[in-house]
Amino acid sequence: MKIREVLEYLENIAPLILQEPYDNAGLLCGNREGELKDVLVCLDSTEAVVDEAIKKNCNLIIAHHPIVFTGLKSLTGSTYIERTLIKALKNDIAIYAIHTNLDNIHLKGVNKKIADKLGLINTKILKPVDYDPEIGAGLLGELETEWDAMEFLRHIKAKMQVSSLKYTPILKKTIQKVAVCGGSGSFLLADAIAHSADIFISSDYKYHQFFDSNNEIVIADIGHYESEFYTIELIKELLSEKFTKFAAHCTQVNTNPINYL
């Protein structure tokens, strides 16, 4: 089968038109018409991931994050981006990114995967677009019963495999309504507050942005990589639902550039 068939399937689930203006989802290098061998799924395309693809005989890497966001003026190997692309091209490996277009859908999107891991029900898009309530940024859901606030924070750590998290002061003893956004979600804080969420789980908050909770909501910053880790599992599940002619491998490379002590 052709690489194109896999890409068309993914783009039917998460159309490229749904990506944010700054994004660069889609086929970033390689031949769409090439014959597919196997697929390697990852969050970030790196040299180590390409090496893994070579070892596993995969000629398609499907990543959540695009390795190329802006135009390249040269391809000399002076940066990790250039080196990764050169290695992929030399080994006839296509790299495809499915990023904010996968973030911005509901039932098969990144945030629904987070919600499922945390046990949320009655989910809906936190900030839907005007024309479709099933498309938009973030997700809002509920726990079946109220949780003790600190116990729920420990639940987040366990379920999202977080070694440490940052959070603002606990405002009340229990939590039930939960807002989530994989990746950098500070732009959705006002929407989480407007929907009376007890806690907003996301990442990449700067120091002064934590004050924006304004004693109206708990912000829990769990880290960018950690908030999107299960996207790898999600993409593999989407592929397994449709295809049986190739193997989809989850990367064994931890691409998180941040370490914790």
List the helices and strands and how they pair.
Blueprint: H1 3-13, E1 26-29, E2 38-42, H2 47-55, E3 58-63, H3 80-90, E4 94-97, H4 100-103, H5 110-118, E5 120-129, E6 132-148, H6 149-159, E7 166-167, E8 174-184, H7 189-194, E9 199-203, E10 218-221, H8 224-228, H9 231-242, E11 248-250
Helix pairs in contact: 2-3
Give structural attributes.
261 residues; alpha/beta; Udp-n-acetylmuramoylalanyl-d-glutamate--2,6- Diaminopimelate Ligase, Chain: A, domain 1; 6-stranded mixed β-sheet; 5-stranded mixed β-sheet; 9 helices
How would you briefly describe this protein structure?
The protein has helices spanning 3-13, 47-55, 80-90, 100-103, 110-118, 149-159, 189-194, 224-228, 231-242; strands at 26-29, 38-42, 58-63, 94-97, 120-129, 132-148, 166-167, 174-184, 199-203, 218-221, 248-250.
